[in-house]
Amino acid sequence: xxxxxxxxxxxxxxxxxxxxxxxxxxxxxxxxxxxxxxxxxxxxxxxxxxxxxxxxxxxxxxxxxxxxxxxxxxxxxxxxxxxxxxxxxxxxxxxxxxxxxxxxxxxxxxxxxxxxxxxxxxxxxxxxxxxxxxxxxxxxxxxxxxxxxxxxxxxxxxxxxxxxxxxxx
Length: 169
Description:
Layout: H1 3-23, H2 28-70, H3 76-89, H4 91-115, H5 119-136, H6 155-168
C-alpha cells in the first residue's frame, strides 16, 4: 500500500464515521464510490497489477466483514465500506484494519458494559451460550439477538483501527 492510497481512502472513512454516528448506517452513496474510485485509481496508477491489487483487497475486506455480518457483529454498510477500503489499500492493510478495529471495538464494548454495570449478566449469557454451542453444536445460539446485543457505531473502532494499521504498517 502506498501513502496516497491511505489518504485517498480517508474522506470516505470520515463520511462513514459521520453517518454511522448520526444514524447507525453507512449509506451506499459512500460505499459505492469508495469501491469504484479505489479500483479505478489503483488501475490508473499501477495498471493491471493495481487493478488486481484493488480487486483482491476489496474481496478480502468484503469477505471478512461478511462473516462478521452473518454473526450479527456489523451491518451491511460496514461490509461494503470494507470492500472500498480494500480497493484503496489492498488485502494486507485491510486485514490489519479489521484486526485493529475488532480489538478496539471489543474494548469499546467492554467499556460500555462496565459503564452500564452489565458485566455479570453478559458473562453469564456468554458462558451459557458457549455451553449450549459445545453440547448441542448449534451455531445459531452464538448469534446476538435484539435487546441482548450491544450496539454502537462500528466506525468508532474503525477510525482508530485504520490509524493503528497506518502507523504500524
